[in-house]
Specification:
Largest sheet: 8 strands, mixed
Distance between the termini: 48 Å
Structural class: alpha/beta
Strand order of the largest sheet: 10-11-7-12-6-13-14-17
Order of helices and strands: HEEEEHEHEHEHEEEEHEHEHEEEHEHHH
Radius of gyration: 24 Å
Helix content: 25-40%
Number of strands: 17
Strand content: 15-25%
Oligomer: single chain
């Protein structure tokens, strides 16, 4: 009979991943004393905070990992909590030893994409949510900031809603926030910090002006721990107001996708959002036309919102040295809307829907574009 070894148990337990931090608990210094006697493995771990939402899952995974070691017949688990000093050391380690700073500046290897529109009601948030999920399904590490502070809708569209209608709050480790994950996408939204007054009353309104809006976006970029991301998407508020200017100042390296509908009333103002982004140094990489012509059961097409708006925006934003393309025309789709209301993106629930396929095509294009490394500091040092 194989006699279990404490080091074997430690290796197995240390490989368990924290579901919020997405890193092994051994690497996070969450594993404490481990001993093995007469086949019984005694394992002690320390969670980050009291009431950690992931406590049950971590405990279950640790028990399973310890029990998987040959010769272990029983597992006795002791769960504690990190001390303030240990939490401080953890947050410093997660930040890579850097002080409290925004990690998505010009030197970042993360591709930042702000999704904008000239006016509301064009389906910008629906497109952004589906695009984020489609990118994550391709194996990319994706973060999503719901920067539409006054009209936030991303949590609901991604199913981040509890049974009582409230949105789960991020876990806090001191001044660090761990964003909830939905369909492989790490998400933060102001809706996660609001509560219903009673029963089924709607979430409170956000009546903030410039300085508060700027501070909120800055805090999302600085204090939310996204880890190493391939892509960070921002669902921008419509128009060219305070948040657009703040994001331009904070993320001048961001790429911009402009969403419009086909009619002139939307496309004319969509051009302005692209122009403002360009004035702050951001690069407009393309236009997505939403609610374009849909094919009816008899094979005919219905252009409910007209046609040509996406091409017009792309042409207006193009420059001799920088061509802006119409990346997709997403047809009007009841399924896209129904799935958004149900909290399950159409790219997962109905991937064969024409609207889902159009968004998938954009995701494929973005995922296939290499990130430019020119002028960026790589995380290596010569010996």
């Amino acid at each position: 009979m194989t006699l279990p070894d404490a080091d074997e148990v430690r290796r197995a337990v240390g490989a368990v991943s924290d579901p919020e931090l997405r890193r092994p608990i051994g690497e996070l210094d969450m594993v404490r004393e481990i001993s093995v006697s007469d086949g019984v493995a005694r394992v002690a771990i320390a969670l980050t905070i009291v009431g950690c939402p992931a406590a049950d899952r971590i405990s279950s995974d640790v028990r399973s990992a310890a029990a998987s070691v040959p010769g272990v017949t029983d597992v006795v688990l002791e769960v504690g909590v990190m001390s303030p000093h240990e939490r401080q050391a953890l947050t410093e380690r997660l930040r890579g030893g850097r002080s409290r700073e925004m990690p998505f500046g010009p030197g970042s290897l993360t591709r930042v994409i702000a999704v904008t529109s000239g006016k509301g009601g064009v389906g910008k948030s629906t497109v952004t949510a589906n695009l984020a999920v489609a990118l994550a399904a391709r194996g990319l590490a994706v973060g999503l900031i719901d920067a539409d502070v006054h009209g936030f809708s991303i949590p609901g569209q991604l199913g981040l809603v509890d049974a009582d209608g409230s949105v789960p709050q991020p876990t806090r480790i001191d001044d660090l926030m761990l964003p909830p994950v939905a369909h492989g996408v790490k998400v933060i939204s102001i809706g996660m910090f609001l509560r219903r007054s009673a029963g089924q009353e709607p979430l409170g309104a956000v009546a903030w002006r410039g300085p508060m809006l700027h501070r909120t976006v800055q805090q999302f970029l600085t204090d939310v721990y996204f880890g190493d991301l391939d892509v960070l998407l921002l669902d921008m508020p419509p128009g060219t107001g305070d948040v657009a200017i703040s994001v331009g100042q904070l993320l001048p390296n961001a790429d911009v996708l402009v969403v419009t509908t086909p009619q002139t009333a939307a496309s004319d103002v969509a051009v302005r959002s692209g122009l403002v982004a360009r004035q702050t140094g951001q690069r407009v990489i393309g236009v997505i036309e939403n609610m374009s012509a849909m094919t009816l059961p008899d094979g005919s097409t219905l252009e409910l919102f007209g046609s040509g708006g996406g091409h017009a925006v792309a042409e207006a934003l193009s420059e001799p040295e920088s061509l802006v393309r119409l990346l997709a025309s997403v047809p009007l789709s009841p399924i896209l809307r129904q799935d958004a209301d149900a909290g399950l993106p159409a790219v997962l629930a109905h991937p064969d829907d024409p609207a889902a396929r159009a968004i998938e095509a954009v995701a494929t294009m973005l995922a296939g574009e290499p990130r430019g490394l020119s002028g960026r500091a790589l995380p290596f040092r010569p010996r």
